[in-house]
């Protein structure tokens, strides 16, 4: 790294990667060349390492097939004579955080095969190495969401959760699959709970110890895939312009959003399942973005027991979290100038935050929302009516300002609704809001708040982009430049202005810039070395386990 005459940092010369032609596989996406890997904004070294870790996880689970059969029968209350078939690895499905294993069960006195999914959490994608207990936190929040929706929103179709186990092998089973005397005791307990008007929700899951232990935390779920029901993602591109299908989909999504929001919550947070079967809103708001960044080594900015009764502290902690991630991520910048721009925009985002926090709802109420809702998380019929909602792990009670029209309904990425794609996005947004308002008229909510009005005002004020930014992985700077900055300043910031503003991001901002540039160069060298030397399980010619793509 060199410096100019005034002591400022100059951008170092770019590395020549033209002779490195090897490609290396990544977990989610096609194999990349060295130059492609250096052009990404995620940590490719970590990403490449996930491939052999996932293969090892697959092989470990495959070796435990006999244990899988036993725990499945255990949760279903079936005899040893029942036939339990575990799918071959090439039929396993993998998401970002879980491996889903198809299972078929047949009782000796029945010709019907029951189809289930054994969903195993991947510790290496859930920050377990950095923050022990993260897997169980995620499991507890998801189970809590399942139990809450079962009791409070039965109109939302979700897979039946037969049973589950945490990483410490505490096993729980839905009361419907337990012996008669256990079901009777559970029924009486819930009746007494209701009679005493206990404020905590009592779920239908009770302890069901087993002597057999699967090495992974897991959930045993109904397989909702049928001949008439498939994931929306499977034919999204083919039919996304069909107005009838889009109407049906928008109506289904609106109904889910309104059902979740029927019950106002007193604080920002996530549900938590307790060993006594109760569910409380006492976990930090477990946002998908936070888990992804924590898995990259970003420090926790919210402790697990943290909830919020006011919006401002939540926003402050989200900014703090993004700052910590910025400080620790090796390739979050392109060069010294980009580093100063990032620091300046983070400062400006804080300065304008009060414009986008509604004073009339700063202390609640808050509303349950799907924090990671996309086309792979829903099953639909041929007309795109939603038949089941899956993946409830990131449901949180969040500020009302975060309620929005799902941007992906327009076929746009989050940074695309501008210029030539603006009208496309706006047409879909207006369509959805019209449907949302119509559905809101028939929902009996326990509040008198017009959610459609708030969503419309958030769009008009530009607040939708602010809230997208602070809850996204890496879009905060871009969204600020595209949508927020023009509302306050009719031009781009000059380099000297960004340098001045960046000085207020940290007392030692100059040293921060220098450190980030040095980290970037070190990271580039490590990536080039990775491609030169290859990576076990990840480079060309190395076969991964079946089912990994």
UniProtKB/TrEMBL annotation:
InterPro entries associated with the record: AGP_Transferase, Kinase-like_dom_sf
Segments for region (Disordered): 1-20
Record-given protein name: Aminoglycoside phosphotransferase domain-containing protein
Organism from which the protein derives: Rhynchosporium graminicola
High-level lineage: Eukaryota, Fungi, Dikarya, Ascomycota, Pezizomycotina
């Amino acid at each position: 790294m060199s410096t100019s005459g005034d002591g400022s940092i100059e951008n170092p010369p770019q590395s020549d990667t033209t002779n490195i032609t090897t490609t290396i596989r990544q977990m989610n996406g096609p194999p990349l060349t060295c130059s492609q890997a250096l052009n990404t904004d995620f940590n490719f070294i970590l990403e490449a390492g996930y491939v052999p870790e996932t293969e090892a996880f697959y092989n470990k689970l495959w070796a435990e097939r006999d244990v899988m059969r036993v725990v499945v029968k255990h949760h279903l209350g079936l005899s040893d004579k029942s036939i339990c078939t575990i799918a071959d690895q090439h039929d396993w499905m993998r998401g970002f955080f879980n491996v889903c294993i198809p299972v078929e069960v047949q009782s000796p006195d029945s010709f019907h095969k029951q189809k289930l999914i054994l969903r195993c959490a991947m510790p290496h994608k859930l920050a377990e190495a950095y923050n022990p207990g993260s897997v169980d936190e995620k499991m507890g929040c998801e189970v809590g969401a399942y139990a809450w929706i079962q009791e409070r929103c039965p109109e939302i179709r979700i897979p039946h959760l037969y049973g589950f186990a945490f990483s410490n092998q505490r096993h729980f089973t839905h009361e419907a699959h337990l012996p008669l005397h256990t079901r009777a005791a559970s029924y009486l307990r819930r009746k007494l709970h209701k009679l005493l008007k206990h404020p905590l929700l009592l779920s239908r899951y009770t302890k069901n110890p087993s002597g057999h232990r699967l090495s992974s935390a897991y959930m045993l779920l109904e397989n909702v895939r049928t001949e008439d029901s498939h994931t929306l993602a499977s034919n999204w591109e083919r039919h996304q312009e069909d107005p009838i299908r889009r109407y049906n989909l928008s109506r289904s999504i609106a109904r889910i959003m309104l059902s979740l929001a029927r019950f106002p919550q007193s604080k920002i947070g996530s549900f938590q399942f307790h060993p006594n079967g109760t569910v409380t809103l006492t976990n930090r708001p477990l946002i998908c973005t936070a888990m992804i960044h924590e898995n990259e080594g970003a420090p926790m900015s919210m402790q697990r027991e943290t909830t919020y009764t006011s919006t401002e502290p939540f926003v402050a902690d989200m900014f703090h979290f993004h700052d910590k991630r910025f400080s620790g991520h090796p390739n979050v910048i392109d060069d010294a100038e980009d580093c100063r721009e990032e620091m300046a925009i983070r400062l400006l985002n804080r300065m304008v935050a009060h414009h986008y926090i509604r004073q009339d709802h700063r202390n609640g109420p808050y509303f349950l929302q799907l924090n990671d809702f996309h086309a792979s998380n829903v099953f639909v019929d041929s007309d795109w009516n939603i038949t089941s909602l899956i993946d409830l792990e990131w449901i949180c009670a969040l500020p009302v300002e975060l309620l929005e029209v799902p941007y992906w309904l327009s076929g746009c990425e989050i940074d695309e609704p501008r210029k030539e794609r603006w009208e496309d996005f706006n047409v879909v947004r207006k369509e959805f809001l019209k449907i949302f308002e119509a559905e809101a008229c028939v929902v009996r909510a326990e509040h008198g708040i017009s959610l459609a009005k708030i969503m419309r005002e958030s769009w008009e004020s530009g607040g939708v982009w602010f809230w997208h930014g602070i809850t996204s992985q890496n879009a905060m700077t871009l969204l600020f430049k595209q949508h927020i900055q023009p509302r306050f300043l009719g031009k781009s910031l000059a380099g000297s202005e960004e340098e001045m503003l960046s000085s207020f991001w940290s007392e030692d901002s100059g040293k921060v810039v220098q450190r980030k540039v040095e980290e970037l160069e070190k990271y580039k060298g490590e990536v080039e070395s990775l491609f030169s030397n290859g990576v076990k399980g990840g480079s060309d010619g190395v076969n991964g386990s079946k089912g990994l793509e």
